Amino acid sequence: MDAALMAELIAFCGIETHFNDAWGKPGTVSESHQLQLLEAQGFDTEDDDIARLQLLQQQLDYWQQVLPAVSVQRADEPLHVMLQVTLEQANTELTLVITAEDGQHQTVNLTPVEGQLVQVVVLDDVEYQQYQHDLGVVLPTGYHNIQLLEGVATQRLIVTPGHCYQPDAFSQQKQWGIALQLYGLRSMRNWGIGDFTDLSNTLRYLASVGADFVGLNPIHALYPALPESASPYSPSSRRWLNISYIDVTAMPGFADCARSQSMVTAPAFVQLLSEQRAKDHVDYSGVMQLKLPVMKSLYHWFTEHSTGSAKALNKAFKLFKQQGGDSLLQLALYDALHVHLYQQDQMQWGWPVWPEQYRDPTSKAVMQFAKQHKAELDYYCYLQFIAQQQLAAAQQVAKDAGMLLGLYRDLAVGVSEASTEIWANPQLYCRDASVGAPPDPLGPAGQNWGLPPMYPYQLYRQGYQPIIDLLRANMQHAGALRIDHVMALLRLWWVPKTAENASGGAYVYYPIMDLLGILALESQRQRAVIIGEDLGTVPDGIRELLAEYGVYSYRVFFFETAADGGYISPAHYPLQAMATLTTHDLPTLIGFWHCEDLRLGQQLGLYKDEAQLQQLYAQRHANKQRILDSLHGHSLNGEPLLPTDYARSVEHLGMDTTLNYALQRHLAAGSSQLLCLQLEDALEMTPPVNIPGTSDEYPNWRRKLTQPIEVWSQREDISQLFVAVSQSRKV
Q1: Which one, out of 64, 202, 286, 445, has a CA that is 20 to 30 A from the CA of 144?
Q2: Which Pfam families match (predicted)?
């Protein structure tokens, strides 16, 4: 390909050809990988003439819009508008009607040439000029519209605050909470998987020992047809909920429905239920085989009583469907169609391999299916309604119990290729590439997450509505939201499907200032604190920018090391941060100390050779000694963190309760506003939640807690730990 054309295409697509890796070393994207990324974005790299035409078409799509499709501006700065006109139009007076979110109108007359000339381009022998004009109006934060009377051009004008939400109580004391995997909660009453009632009970207990929040794994909608596709970070829809978390026994009509009661009291059902509760890993298929038939029975009870005892519920359900709109109907349609096709042929794992007539949600075949299975679609809508109600009830339990934040939700960075989101909006996603990460400490070989990225320009053309919908939905019934891989606001590592491995990708840039503004607006409106998971390869200046917008950094103890290799004292962590010892992608405290993650990695073939493994063991040994030294060097309220006679060498020193709890209290005394501990560390568990870079090799996203809530919530040692943590946060 012509070098000048290739450079123009690379710049147009926002592809970064040079970057610094996680260790600060310069990296370069090879020409072959650059070409693969251009091909993934639809450009013909074999024929320069075709590629030039493709580029021209996309450039014209932008420049032929008199008003750019969307503009995101800050409320504390004068509002302006860009006008994009041909040379012949530059002296033509234009009338703009500004419609505020509350419906009020203002009219402005502007002549393009009287504004500030920003840019000039010549495309297909036509000169286009871009002028900036001050609007001379004041608008509140929100979503407004500008319409050009001379034509059909419209612009979404998003006016944003300069800062995400922060509760007033943050200035009075520091907060803490517990992170847990909802599916992993054991109880003597659930059906083999943690549910929303377990969550409510956990919130109630943790509030009693002083916690301010409970952090959840992503609870996005997965696949009822494929329960074993269980990764919360590879969902079907991030706007809707995972129905497996519904507490069936709390559904309307459960106690009154004779049909449902006969199902759950049958000896075979009781036996299967007992087996599911006893399992150490969630059997998603087994759980859904128990839940789905009873949930269907209770849906029928609801329809049978919708004009009687369930009349008020029916009214609320109708409102829910109205507010859910097309997105809810698309999810219900996808789930129903997926189940229908998969039952006929188990090769039909998702819409990319469905018969052609079903791959387009607007096709006649799909519409015919929806018409014929209207009740089935309504059933899946009803399950979403129940899930939302139970989640809202859990948040209310937290608030009633005195928690400041309550639920702290998690927004995954993407959706799987077979997702409802891509089926319903295919033009937004690049299916010939996947989101991932270059080599870093979490993934020495790089990572490919199998999540098709959004096209930045398509996201812009859609007025950023997909992002707005995601943020708004995931801030519902929550006091805080964690943005997984928050670097995605700036850039994502795209790995073309043709690349040999995850290192064969490159960063593609996104409009960070627009996205940050929208994040701040939704955060303020939903009164949700924002935590950005800023691990991995972080470019210079990005943490400072996120901090300026009030996004809380994510500081993992194991990664907070000084230049000499020692561990930074939590007292020196930034205030605007959430501190944590470990995460779902890292080993537990015991797993780290006993090198279980390295042993598992060796078994699973994650290391390139024995030398690399031995280097990791040696590094871990040194890190453990530095941690032990640090704990011995710190005190809490004048008392040493570790007993004075506690071992000072890690040789032959296993992780015991004293060391485990000392680490948690050490972090609790730190300076960060937020602290998040792992429930499995309080229970002194060893196996990890997830091993990055694996799929079927390890039971990721399935491990349950070792004890049910009825047991661990009565343990005096755990309550003493949590009370001590609470006391540390008040200092």
Answers
A1: 64
A2: Glyco_hydro_77 (PF02446), MalQ_N (PF21226)
The whole-number pLDDT of residue 731 equals: 66
Q: At what angle do helices 512-526 and 465-474 cross, to 10 degrees?
A: 30
- Quote the CA–CA distance of 569 and 561 in Å, as a whole number: 9
- Between 716-730 and 657-668, two packed helices, what is the crossing angle to 10 degrees? 20
User: Is pLDDT at 90 greater than 70 in this prediction?
Assistant: yes
Answer whether 471's CB lies under 8 Å from 522's CB.
Answer: yes
The number of beta carbons lying within 10 Å of the beta carbon of residue 211 is 27
Residue type, 393: A
pLDDT of residue 640: 93
Half-sphere exposure of residue 175, counting CA atoms within 13 Å on the CB side? 29
- What would the DSSP string read from start to end of 331-395? HHHHHHHHHHHHHH-TT--SGGGS-GGGSSTTSHHHHHHHHHTHHHHHHHHHHHHHHHHHHHHHH
Structure tokens at 522: 């939704």
Mean pLDDT within 543-557: 97
Q: Specify whether the CB–CB gap between 163 and 670 falls below 8 A.
A: no
Decide: 364 and 332 in contact? Cβ < 8 Å. no
What are residue 190's phi and psi, to 5 degrees?
A: -80, 175
Report the DSSP pairing between strands 237-241 and 26-28.
unpaired
Give the phi and the psi of residue 338 in degrees, each rounded to 5.
-60, -50
- Residue for token digits 């400490």? 441
pLDDT at residue number 156: 98
Mean model confidence pLDDT for the chain: 96
Number of Cβ atoms within 10 Å of the Cβ of 96:
23
Q: Residue 5 corresponds to which tokens in the numbers above?
A: 């054309």
Pairing verdict, β 433-437 and 447-451? antiparallel
Tell me the pTM: 0.96
At 684, list the tokens: 């002194």
- Separation of CA 644 from chain center: 43
CB 412 within 8 A of CB 396: no
Amino acid at 597: D
Q: Which SS3 state, helix, strand or coil, does residue 665 take?
A: helix
Q: Which two tokens stand for residue 461?
A: 């053309």
Give the model confidence (pLDDT) of 230-273 as tens digits: 999 999 999 999 999 999 999 999 999 999 999 999 999 999 99
Is residue 502 very low, low, confident or very high in pLDDT (cuts 50, 70, 90)?
A: confident
Q: d(Cα 62, Cα 457) in Å, to the nearest integer?
A: 9
3-state secondary structure of 308: coil
Residues 396-409: what's their mean pLDDT? 98
Residues of the chain with pLDDT > 90, as a percent, come to 92
**Ramachandran sector of residue 180 (left: φ over 0; alpha: ψ -120 to 50; beta: rest):** beta
Q: Are strands 406-411 and 213-216 parallel, antiparallel or unpaired?
A: parallel
Look at residue 609 and tell me whether its pLDDT is greater than 90.
no
Tokens of 365: 């075949």
Residue 333 and residue 423 in contact, taking contact as beta carbons nearer than 8 Å: no
Rounded Cα–Cα distance for residues 227 and 276 (Å): 15
Convert the pLDDT of each residue in 404-414 to its tens digit. 999 999 999 99
Q: Residue 647: its pLDDT value, please?
A: 97
Give the pLDDT confidence score for residue 442 in this predicted structure.
63
Question: 76: how many CB neighbours lie within 10 A of its CB?
Answer: 11
The pair of structure tokens assigned to 86 is 């041909």
DSSP 98-155: EE-TTS-EEEEEE-GGGSEEEEEEEETTEEEEEEEEE------SEEEEEEESSSS-EE
Q: How far apart are CA 711 and CA 727, in angstroms?
A: 24
- pLDDT tens sequence across 406-455: 999 999 999 999 999 999 999 999 999 999 988 776 666 678 999 999 99
Q: Is the dihedral of CA 711, 583, 408, 389 positive or negative?
A: negative
Which of 89, 77, 76 shows the shortest CA–CA distance to 131? 89
User: Residues 101, 106, 110, CA angle at the centre, nearest 5°?
Assistant: 125
